[in-house]
Write a structure and sequence with these properties.
This protein is mostly beta strands. It has a domain at about 20-90: SH3 type barrels. The protein contains no helices and eleven strands. The protein has strands at about 20, 35-40, 45-50, 55-60, 70-75, 75, 80-85, 90, 95-100, 105-110, 115. The protein has a six-stranded antiparallel sheet with strand order 6-3-2-1-7-8, with no helix packed on it. It has a three-stranded antiparallel sheet with strand order 9-10-11, with no helix packed on it. The protein is elongated, with a radius of gyration of 17 Å. It starts with 18 loop residues before the first strand and ends with a strand. Zinc ion binds near residues 87, 92, 108 and 111. Zinc ion binds near residues 85, 87, 88, 92 and 111.
Length: about 120
């Protein structure tokens, strides 16, 4: 399968440490919010704290002779999450606003609230 690149991050304005909400996906996680731990931009995926846990079985080792199961967040497609706006209490689209001094901020297109630096 060929890798397809998204058009220059047109709608992916998600950064690490953003709070996002799951809006799609197989998991019952839809509607859950979490903090973005990592953005894998090349793959168009994000790892969100508390979302899309993957159970990983550990083989018995010296550290844990019985082996075990750990929960680890698995990457989910960026398109399955949206920036969460605390004011709207829902996932929203964000825009980018540029000030005269050059600073750019992201804002909620719904309520106009600033979400963070762009
Ligand atoms: Zn809003």
């Amino acid at each position: 399968m060929k890798k397809r690149k998204d058009k220059k991050g047109a709608k992916c304005r998600i950064r690490r440490d953003d709070i996002v909400i799951a809006v799609a996906g197989k998991e019952k996680a839809a509607g859950k919010t979490g903090k973005v731990l990592k953005v894998i931009s090349g793959k168009g995926k994000v790892i969100v704290q508390g979302l899309n846990y993957l159970k990983k079985t550990l083989r018995p080792s010296q550290q844990s002779p019985k082996g075990g199961i750990i929960d680890k967040e698995a990457p989910i497609p960026i398109s399955n999450v949206m920036i969460y706006c605390p004011k709207c209490a829902r996932g929203v689209r964000v825009g980018i606003r540029r000030y005269e001094d050059g600073t750019k901020v992201r804002f909620c297109k719904r309520c106009d609230e600033t979400i963070g630096k762009a």
